[in-house]
Amino acid sequence: MPSPNDPRTNRLLAALPDAEWGRWQALLEPVDLPLGKVLHESGGALEHVYFPTSALVSLLYVLADGGTAEIAVVGLEGLVGVTLFMGGGSTPSRAVVQSAGQGFRLPAPALQEEFQRAGPAMHLLLRYTQALITQMAQTAVCNRHHSLDQQLCRWLLLSLDRLPGNELVMTQELIGNMLGVRREGVTEAAGRLQAAGLIRYARGRITVLDRPGLEARTCECYGVVKKEYDRLLPHAAPG
User: Fold this and answer.
1) Where is the HTH crp-type domain (predicted)?
2) pLDDT tens digits along 164-222
């Protein structure tokens, strides 16, 4: 299994051509990403872009009353901070580490300079952004039209795709905040998945026991998102 201390465990970094990787490598800084760390706040200026290698980051929309709902999840497949190169400068979402781990960060000016070169890195970042937008749109559709069981299966599968293992360290309260539902609903849904032998949940740790079973139980939304990421982004092994 690739090491979280290797920046090219992150699939976007692994996909960079040699010339771009040579420019970025010296500028990347390893960072610990503890549970609950806020990488950027709603409306704030971004000073870095983050490339997780073993952490999971939620992009959350924050309501006026303090309530939150997850609009996307980012892990080793991507980056946090697309507004740095999309021209907006800030974003209405908050980025919070939801599963602790490691990653790397790159200063904002370095990423903006690379994007302005209009080379391979720019095209890679734009394809990633298109995939991320698909995830956001499908999350909205799923939360409106599908059952909590299906939403939880989708969320677990998307999270697993972005982590190096098959275990999530996550409380039911935090899952509820991610999905925008009450903790009691998550408890019941997780209990049904556990009773079906699909997951094991104990002391804040969710271990997936039967991934094909989860895939069979989820809605079409997971497949739509996965297909778009697979279509747009390379799955190069770290080199």
Assistant:
1) 146-212
2) 888 877 665 666 665 555 666 667 777 788 888 898 887 778 888 999 999 998 989 89
* Helix (H) / strand (E) containing 226: helix 220-232
How many angstroms separate the Cα of 208 from the Cα of each of 53, 83, 190, 194? 20, 33, 11, 9
- In the chain, CATH 1.10.10.10 covers 146-226
Residue range 86-96, pLDDT digits in tens: 877 777 789 99
In angstroms, the CA 137 to CA 152 distance is 17
- Maximal CA-CA distance, the chain: 53
pTM of the model as a whole:
0.87
Tokens of 160: 């697993």
Q: Which fold has domain 7-141?
A: Jelly Rolls (2.60.120)
CATH 2.60.120.10 residue ranges of the chain are 7-141
